[in-house]
Amino acid sequence: MAEAVPVQIAPLFLQVDGVDVEIIEASKQPLISGETWYVVSVRVIYKGIPSRVFPLFVRSREDLMNKLKVEVTKLKVLDYSLGLEEVRRLIC
Q: Is residue 4 in a domain?
């Protein structure tokens, strides 16, 4: 009997630290060393402001969540220090 493989169809929407995140696509990239990495295309929607789509290079789902938390934290620091208009200017 074949092993069941969990499938998730993109786009996926989730929240990271209270901020909406859209996973647009993910592609598996095997390296010469045998290690597998994934290139994940992401859009962060911070306070209703959608960012440009950007790639994250991750090894696992846990690595993806950690990197998304870093990106969200960067936006929050920008908002607190420079204001929402500057966030809009930088991410759009």
A: no
